[in-house]
Amino acid sequence: MTHRCPDRSLKELAVWNGYPDFKPLDGFDKPAGSARTFAYSKHGHKFAYVTNESVKVFDAATDVQISEVTRINVIDVWFSPKGTYFATWERPTKLEDGSGSNNLIIWESDTGAQLAAFSQKAYSNSNIQWTENEQYCARMVTGEVHFWESKNVGQAVWAKLKLEGISQFSLSPGRSPAVAVFIPERKGAPAIVRMYGLPNFKSALSNKTFYKADKIQMYWNDLGTNLLVLTQTEVDKTGKSYYGETNLYYLAVAGNFDCRVTLDKEGPIHDVTWGPDSKEFVVVYGSMPSKATLFDHRANAVFDFGTNPRNFVKYNPQGRIICFAGFGNLNGTVDFWDRKTLKKICTFSAANSSFCEWSPDGRFLLTATLTPRLRVDNGFKMWHYTGNLIYHEGVEELYQIGWRPAAATSYPMRALSPAPKAVKAETNGEAAKPAALPAGAYVPPHLRGSVTPPSFKADLSLLFLQGDGARSSTPPRPSIPGAPVGSSPKSGAKNNKKKKDTQKVEEVNGAASPADASAAGLSEKDKKVRNLEKKIRQIRDLKDRQSKGDTLEATQVAKIANEASLLRELSQLKVTTTVLHPIHTQRFHNMSLKPGEVNLGTSIMAVAFNGGVIVGADSRTTTGSYIANRVTDKLTKVHDLIYCCRSGSAADTQAVADIVQYYLQMYSAYAYVRCRFTFTSVQQDEAPTVHVAATLFQEMCYQNKDQLSAGIIVAGWDKKKGGTVYNIPLGGALIQQPFAIGGSGSTYIYGYCDSQYKDNMTREECVEFVKNSLALAMSRDGSSGGVIRMAVITEKGVERLFVPGDKLPGKLM
């Protein structure tokens, strides 16, 4: 079946037939000039376009005009889910009496009759929303959401949802409609997302509160049973991003489940999409190269698609193929993955694209370069899911394009078909190649047969591997917008020279395969490190399964208990003197490298104040007399409102913190079970006290005092004691203190802290006290340095503070 594809350009509005015709539709009543915009109904039954004088509505199957509305200032048009109604928005104007004009108008599609009109200054196509069955429609007024029966939209309001501070709402799809509303943070109170069933607004179905949310985006699954909420702040206070901090939350309409989606890479969330079956979703997140992960219907990570420079993801309508792409300021590389086998199908380049959409049958991907995003090389391309470019059409100043939608039942899931023959395609080397199988680490010709360190070889191999481990083909030559096809310089001469150079090197060193060269360079120590890292990865996978409620075998539990010793052994191997290539060792020939004992250098601190506690630490990690890491985060969260500061061996303290975190999770789970089966007053969200967490740390440190090198400060807030601080120095003692300091930097600031500390300090005084104390320690102690990280823990939550190195207090240094 041929799919239609309308496009709106500077000169005209045209409707194209897709594969296999690829030609403009004959007999279509297009406007004399260009149109302002166009829109299809959800299932493609009706089509409308806007001109300077009117809005015309057509039957999309027969191309017969149904109705016409004469309006001269219409900017946008959109349909209700079944196409029974459509809405138009015009630029607001002031009337003679000073009031605003009714610029948001609801019309009946078949007759063109006006049903209602409202004054709406801000533009958004979510200003008026309908339920899936079109029984109700809703619109937001200041602090309220008004509901009407759709057939009576121009009459009195049917129901109102009134909550102070509402800034956004969204109606769910599906048979049982619900409404989600968003209330931003106000006066220190957290932001809220609440869901109500229509028309019962007396009690919420689900409620989620969180901080760091100046604005949100809501993503419903197609069934309307679950909601993803993407939150964003205007400014990232940690300084890690220019675009604010993002988080993702999951809410079930039934009210029986909600959580924050755990993402294991720092950085912004680029894109989120639900699968068509409503049982899974994919998130693209993290600093570039970003990471993509598949999650199930309970927000558990199911599959990792690897890391690549991507910021876009979309399922085809049948859910069989997933498209990942890097558009905008990225180079336009597109990956197709088979959802059934979770294997990559192909990779190709759609450079300079600003639009991407699947065809209704899920076989073709439409990409386009639109104005004003880019004013040269405008046009569209159609790709088969095998990566073959099927059609390419250049269009002068292309503004809008899209497929005619179709119901999901029109094109059911089927086996993947072979690629059709291209009709018209100027490929310019853009067609895809199938994903290759792994072929081992690459070794440059000039290093084959040499004694280059394995770590150096591994770093080089990363340049030639894709995120999923498959070896990439030669990257496509970057295209220059506006340049003629084939204008880039040819590389034949360079390739010939490379072949000659390779032959010369092989004559001297002897030809060696990449795999042989890589294996030959591994020493016994490197092999042991590799095996230990493999075991630690397996243990972390087991811990993830255990945290999700899976039952582990006795051997697997014993394996988890052995993690601390493995981490300690790995750290000892990694900090010993590394065998360097001769070219690197000449400048160090007069220096004696230490055998590898880890220095315990750090500066940590915790202080209680009225209403909470503040924990703080420097960020320098040292290995002997060398700085191993300048930006370590030594503040570890072990429960919602409990943190620990770590000094000592990084491996030891991290292992102890992980174990304590696991036991605290089990504590909360046991409290909930006790509530359910003994009918006590224990609530589901009962949290362990800070004293319970400190006792667990003390027990671990004392029982293993001869094997561990760990000094811990535990601090947090609980309902029983409020903000409390516990110090667990080397040896495993447990002392509750109003403030505690630790690490090598603490020896320089005992006198300063004793003189400056005072009881009942305010939050602001406490922040300055911690900042000044740590800055003084960092200026005196050679093993402390970097930046200052702090966490303010109160009943309302945790606020992270960050002091960069150039903003440290200078008066004390």
From TrEMBL:
Entries under InterPro entries matching the protein: Ntn_hydrolases_N, Pept_T1A_subB, Proteasome_bsu_CS, Proteasome_sua/b, Proteasome_suB-type, TIF2A, TIF_beta_prop-like, WD40/YVTN_repeat-like_dom_sf
Keywords associated with the record: Cytoplasm, Hydrolase, Initiation factor, Nucleus, Protease, Proteasome, Protein biosynthesis, Repeat, Threonine protease, Translation regulation, WD repeat, Zymogen
Superkingdom in the source lineage: Eukaryota
Region (Disordered): 467-526
Molecular functions (GO terms): mRNA binding; ribosome binding; threonine-type endopeptidase activity; translation initiation factor activity; tRNA binding
Translation initiation factor beta propellor-like domain: residues covered: 208-401
Signal peptide (UniProt feature, chain positions): none
Reactions catalysed according to its record: Cleavage of peptide bonds with very broad specificity
Gene Ontology annotations of biological process type: proteolysis involved in protein catabolic process; regulation of translation
Compositional bias per record (Low complexity), positions renumbered to this chain: 511-520
EC number: 3.4.25.1
Cellular localisation: Nucleus
GO CC field: cytosolic small ribosomal subunit; nucleus; proteasome core complex, beta-subunit complex
Top-level EC class: hydrolase
Active-site residue list: 602 (nucleophile)
tRNA-binding is among the record's keywords: no
Pfam families, A to Z: eIF2A, Proteasome
Family: Belongs to the WD repeat EIF2A family.
Protein name: Eukaryotic translation initiation factor 2A
Organism this protein belongs to: Umbelopsis vinacea
